[in-house]
Design a protein that fits this description.
It contains three helices and 16 strands. The radius of gyration is 18 Å and the shape is globular.
């Protein structure tokens, strides 16, 4: 599986090229176009079997801000391409897993992963409850590629110690990092009056992939200008 990122970083798309019989999994609704002999199967989980477990995993993904369904693409005998794009305009990045590294991906940032990668639901407990974000993340392990997207540009930060990121600007991070949710300023009043509110404090050594925009503030800006649809 080869992934080429096109038109970075503002209106990015990904071209996924497969050899004959090769397959990968993508978020439902992310496909722009594909080769004519590309096979597609839709499910709530990549793995087969366990109907109830698959449905519960799908519902958990829905709570995490992802779609309920996944599309599993398999190339024909001569191989083929699938073009993917995120729902919001912005950047895309290919993260490589080597069997040892594990990553967690923020809600709405997952696009696709190769066959050797396992995707699971990561419950972060109640430290996310008051952050305005979801408590459920997507956790990826194994060997292969994970394609993520962002609202705006993606940029990696190498953390060695402590680093602070706004809760709405996290696309993904390595599981070698621990994090806590806390106030941005010295006091709660200054944090909220300054417009920053709550932030994520990462500790340890690893990479955080940040996105330059956050969808919730953007949605709040648009809401007063939206005209209700007439019945």
């Amino acid at each position: 599986m080869n992934v080429e990122i096109l038109a970075k970083p503002s209106n990015t798309a990904a071209r996924v090229s497969l050899e004959g019989g090769e397959h990968f999994t993508a978020e439902g609704g992310s496909m722009i176009a594909m080769s004519g002999d590309m096979g597609v199967e839709t499910s709530v989980s990549k793995k087969q079997g366990g109907g109830l477990g698959k449905m519960l995993k799908g519902m958990a993904r829905k709570l995490a801000g992802e779609g309920l369904f996944l599309n599993n693409y398999t190339a024909g005998s001569s191989g083929g391409d699938v073009f993917l794009s995120p729902s919001l305009p912005g950047d895309m990045e290919v993260l490589e897993l080597d069997g040892n590294k594990k990553i967690k991906v923020q809600n709405g940032s997952f696009v696709a992963h190769s066959a050797g990668v396992d995707m699971n639901i990561s419950w972060e407990g109640f430290k996310n409850v008051f952050s305005g974000e979801n408590m459920i993340w997507l956790s990826f392990s194994g060997s292969g590629k994970v394609v993520i997207n962002a609202f705006g540009m993606i940029y990696p930060v190498q953390v060695d110690g402590e680093y602070i990121v706004d809760t709405g600007n996290i696309a993904a991070f390595e599981e070698t990092l621990d994090f806590t949710i806390g106030k941005a300023g010295k006091s709660w009043v200054s944090s909220f009056l300054g417009g920053e509110g709550l932030v994520c404090r990462f500790k340890g050594k690893g990479t955080v992939w940040c996105q330059t925009h956050a969808d919730r503030p953007f949605g709040s800006l648009l809401t007063p200008h939206l005209i209700p649809r007439k019945q």
